[in-house]
Specification:
single chain, mainly alpha
Length: 478
Amino acid sequence: MDEADGPKANGAGGGGGKDRDTAVSERRFRFLVAGYAVSSYGTFLNMVALNLFVYETTGRALAMGLFMAVRLASGFVAGLAVGGLLARFSAKSIMLWANVGQGSVMLVLILAPESLVTGALMAVSVVIGACGTLFMVALRSSIPEMVGEDRRAWANSLSITGRSLAMVAGFASAGVVVSLVGYTAAFLLDMATFVVCAVTVALLPIAGGKGSASAVGAPGTEKAGKAGKAGKAGKAGKSEQAEKGGPRWRPVAFLALAAAPGLGLMVALRGVDAFGSSSHNAALPIYSTSLDASNPAVFVSAFWCVWALGNIGAQQVIQRYAQRTGRSVGALGFGYGTVVMSAAFIAAFAGFPLAVTAVIALIAGAADGLTEVAYTSHLQTLPATLRGHAFGLSATFENLGFGVGMILVAAALDRFSPLAVVGWSHGAAIVVAVVFLLRVAGLRRRAERTGRAGLRKEEAVEGRPDRGDRDGAEVSRG
């Protein structure tokens, strides 16, 4: 494989050295994903346990909505700031302290006296929301440095598989854990998962962050021969900019969206997709209650389990495709996947028999997995200096879309059926996805025309006898 793990690939040993470095980097990444999956289990466990605890503590459904709103708002702000943090700190330090912060705030909640529980809950919502976004952006933006450009799709697919498994385990076990051992034990278990991930991050050498400095000589970036001078010049330029103008994360974030044609529309589609996701998340309990009022949790749990199976199955196919062809799923895959996923979620509320609905959930999960890998891999093609800002701004759009969606959807579900609400929300995502696909197709046609025109011009120039561009040996034969 080409330059799979940094500068060592250019040293003695040739292809054997590259293969060894690739194996080492992939093994380390697997350990990191294992730690990430453990902490993700804690995240999904506390999504259920904390919401139940908030309702039990306050006795008001409005408090649960406020808790979720604060959590999303914290993620929104963290998405705006994380690009600037990655320009100043290593990805490893951000991922480490994000887990330390989440574990610490859970300990605060466990030890808080009854009079301070409400304040501790608000602190938990702020820290969990912000640190979750910081960790996710730091991880995704640093994957090309960790495993190499040519292994991005594999790494993205592996991390998404770990998170999907954790989601199923977290949602499935939350009710059992809370009912059997209580909230305190559930929160201790949650804290332990963040400690495990923090230890994993601390023990592994993780590249990424600090602008492009950590990416110098890394796979898919500048060649090792230019690394020293370029790195020093980049650091000097950044320090001068920091002294003169201070932090500039906002313009850089939007510059990241302008760095590639259609990228801004792609991030916007991601935000609209998050808006659609809020609709089926809010509508599933209502729809499940209409199917079986005595035990509504059965349909919800079964739906998400089948969805996760489709997601994991898609990751396996994507990993094998990437290994066989060396290619990642492109922007078109993201657009088509969004259309299929949104259509499947709409169909899931159409009242089909349970067996058909199971197939629909499987398709929705597979399409969701495809869009996740395609989207993440596409943003990772940006330069290291812009990548963190792009992922941060993307997280901001996603949190905004999901947060606004939860408010509007909750109000709409009081007046309209789940099918109507999900249909409007995911229908908007389909419309934007079609616009995105037309945009990508137009860009590809333009690139093909430009390429053909350039080729004809080159052939015309090479055919002129008055030009000295041709090889000397060829000229001597004339």
